[in-house]
């Protein structure tokens, strides 16, 4: 089973990297960019076929390691 | 005073910390590799600076999940003093021993320079070598020292005397909220700070402003 975990900064948390990317896009002439927030994507290949238990395991991985829940939100999707 | 320095792969300030502890206490610290089964019986556990696990995922995130940190957590709960400097501070935060988060510097640049620190609470084992309000020089060298916490946490830290040091005189190098440079846990036996007091302890360093942190700790445990 394949899964994708997306980790993004919570609203209100300063994102200087996102701001720098936004500035760079604008300097390249992409004038329609109102805001950029950057984050991380993890693609996982999991043993097993039970989607419910995979989701619960992935949530636990996010809580324990993949995301810092003080500043980050996460979402989990099964991609196959 | 008996101390131990925890070493993870990728740290690079461990020798500076070992030298500072040895010079100030007269006794070399025990050196604990992250795969060792336990931490020896000591009064002070130090996690030095560097780039544990190459700062992969988030600074300190991987080191914070290693089994030796369970032992550090147990000792801290029993009142053993724990000091984390720079990457050590990041590890203590990722391990949940201190609240908040340390984010990328606001400037996005690695900063390596001297700052001024104000002693906010001098009434602890770590800071008793200083006086409240005292401003001293200290080097910093980091890319991710921008302290963040939600407003309720900040209020609690400020209200409970848990801010140890603040960047003073406009020298905040990273954009940290409330100019926070170092914080305590609730029991004030755990201190994490971004600056490097161990790099300013003798004349050869160009000053000894950081030495009082170590002499204060020694006086408490001697």
Report on this model:
- The complex is a heterodimer of chains A (80) and B (222).
- Chain A has helices spanning 16-27, 51-66; strands at 2-9, 39-45, 72-78.
- Chain A has 80 residues and is of the alpha+beta class.
- Chain A has one domain: 2-Layer Sandwich (Mth169, Chain: A).
- In chain A, strands 2-1-3 form a three-stranded antiparallel β-sheet, covered by helices on one side.
- Chain A is elongated and about 45 Å long.
- The N and C termini of chain A lie close together (6 Å).
- In chain A, 12% of the residues are buried.
- The model of chain A has no long low-confidence stretch (mean pLDDT 95).
- The N and C termini of chain B lie close together (6 Å).
- Chain B contains six helices and eleven strands.
- Chain B has a single domain, classed as Rossmann fold.
- Chain B is globular, with a radius of gyration of 16 Å.
- In chain B, β10 and β11 (190-193) form a beta hairpin.
- A nine-stranded mixed β-sheet of chain B has the order 2-1-3-4-11-10-9-6-7, with helices on both faces.
- Chain B is of the alpha/beta class and 222 residues long.
- Chain B has helices at 14-25, 61-64, 67-77, 87-94, 151-159, 211-221, and strands at residues 3-7, 30-33, 44-47, 81-85, 101-103, 111-119, 135-142, 146-148, 163-168, 180-184, 190-193.
- The mean pLDDT of chain B is 96.
- The chains are: A alpha+beta (80), B alpha/beta (222).
- At the A-B interface, α1 and α2 of A face loops of B.
Mean pLDDT across all amino acids of chain B: 96
CATH architecture of chain A: 2-Layer Sandwich
- Identify the biggest protein-protein contact and residues per side: A-B, 11 and 19 residues
Supply Rg of chain A: 16 Å
Number of helices of chain B: 6
In what range is the share of β-strand residues of chain A? 25-35%
Average pLDDT of chain A: 95
Counting copies of identical and different chains, the oligomeric state is: heterodimer
Question: Could you name the CATH topology of chain A?
Answer: Mth169, Chain: A
Strand order of the largest sheet of chain A: 2-1-3
Helix fraction of chain B by DSSP (H/I, runs of at least 4): 10-25%
Can you say what the CATH homologous superfamily of chain B is? Class I glutamine amidotransferase (GATase) domain
Radius of gyration of chain B: 16 Å
Order of helices and strands of chain B: EHEEHHEHEEEEHEEEH
Query: The biggest beta sheet of chain A, please?
Result: 3 strands, antiparallel
Poorly predicted ranges of chain B (pLDDT <50, ≥5 residues)?
Answer: none
**Strands side by side in the biggest sheet of chain B:** 2-1-3-4-11-10-9-6-7
């Amino acid at each position: 089973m394949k899964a994708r975990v997306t980790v993004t900064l919570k609203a209100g948390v300063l994102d200087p990297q996102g701001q720098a990317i936004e500035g760079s896009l604008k300097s390249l002439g992409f004038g329609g960019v109102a805001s950029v927030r950057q984050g991380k994507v993890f693609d996982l290949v999991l043993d097993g076929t039970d989607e419910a238990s995979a989701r619960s395991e992935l949530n636990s991985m996010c809580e324990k390691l993949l995301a810092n829940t003080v500043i980050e939100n996460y979402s989990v999707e099964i991609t196959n | 005073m008996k101390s131990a320095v925890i070493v993870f792969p990728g740290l690079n300030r461990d020798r500076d910390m070992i030298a500072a502890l040895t010079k100030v206490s007269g006794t070399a610290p025990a050196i604990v590799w992250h795969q060792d089964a336990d931490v020896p019986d000591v009064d002070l556990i130090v996690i030095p600076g560097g780039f544990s696990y190459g700062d992969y995922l988030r600074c300190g995130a991987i080191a914070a999940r290693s089994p030796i940190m369970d032992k550090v957590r147990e000792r801290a709960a029993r009142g053993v003093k724990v000091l984390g400097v720079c990457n050590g501070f990041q590890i203590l935060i990722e391990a949940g021993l201190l609240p908040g988060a340390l984010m990328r510097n606001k400037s996005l640049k690695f900063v390596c320079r001297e700052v001024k620190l104000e002693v906010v609470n001098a009434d602890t084992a770590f800071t008793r070598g200083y006086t409240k309000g005292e401003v001293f020089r200290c080097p910093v060298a980091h890319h991710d020292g921008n302290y963040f916490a939600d407003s309720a946490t900040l209020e609690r830290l400020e209200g409970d005397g848990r801010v140890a040091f603040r960047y003073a005189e406009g020298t905040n190098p990273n954009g940290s909220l409330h100019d926070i440079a170092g914080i305590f846990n609730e029991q004030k036996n755990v201190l994490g700070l971004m600056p490097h007091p161990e790099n300013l302890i003798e004349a050869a360093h160009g000053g000894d402003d950081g030495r009082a942190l170590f002499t204060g700790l020694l006086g408490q445990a001697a």
